[in-house]
From TrEMBL:
GO terms for molecular function: monoatomic cation transmembrane transporter activity. GO terms for cellular component: membrane. Coiled coil: none annotated. This is Cation diffusion facilitator family transporter.
Amino acid sequence: MAAEHSKGGGESTLTVLLALAVNFAIAVMKAIAGVITGSAAMMAEAGHSVADTFTEGLLLTALRRSTRPADRRHPFGYGKDRYFWSLLAAVSIFVSGAVFAFYEGFRTVFGAPQEQGNPVVGYVVLALAFALESVSWTQAARQVRREARARDRSVLAYLRVSDDPTVKTVFLEDSAALVGLVLAFGGLGLHHLTGSSVWDGVASLAIGVLLAFAAYTLASTNRGLLIGRQADPVLVRAVWSWLREAPEVEQVVDLLTMAVGTDRVLVCARLDFDDALGAADLERACVRIDAELRAAHPELDEVFLEPVPRTDPELRSRVLARYGDLKL
């Protein structure tokens, strides 16, 4: 598990570093072009790239801090640090990107008409930015496709259940960046053709909506992981089936899982064991089940097994309240 986790963390770090370098270069180019052209959409895109640059810095912090080993104060490790810093990255996208884009848009649409500078500079910068963003997006998309394929899922399904917010953040923000560049190009072009700066402002507002949506999506994902989201349902069903087939287990009464970090899952299973087992047999069975379960599913970080009677009415009512009549 450590090797796989290290490999994944290394690729995630490469993805974030590439995005950081690309976004910093693009932010400088867009800011210069925005001043030259006087385009609100271009300035909104400059703010967008500045927000993305801050975001990558936060993601690098998330990757570094989340790999610290468990200690006395944090016996389950620091895996959720990645979710916290990724949540701050989503806030950065909204505050530094969306709010600035809305400001530029409203100022241009409802303010005095603005003369356009040299639009050719804007076209060239947007084309270069699109090419550079495509490099970063390709790296993020390649990692997402590889990880989705490894889990036998579609890309959309993988993004929905993934417990690695860093690569998801880079992928979504780069996708939003490419769409934002198209919007900025449209606003700049329509301003050039019609002479009306309103189109520039409308494009800036559209970029703000795009960034707000991206920020909300990422914040919602990290909120769920911070609260304590269940592990991937495919893994949960696999663990349930494995436990049910264990010879010492008569019935799986309850199964609780929680993502405590990227590729790290906590499992608590309440099992009704064979009543013929003695205390020593039960202890050996728990040790064997723990070891074999970890070997079968390396992402399991901690496994707790609790012997319980399946007929206990209070326990049964709690399980039914959580899951209903359907098991998992």
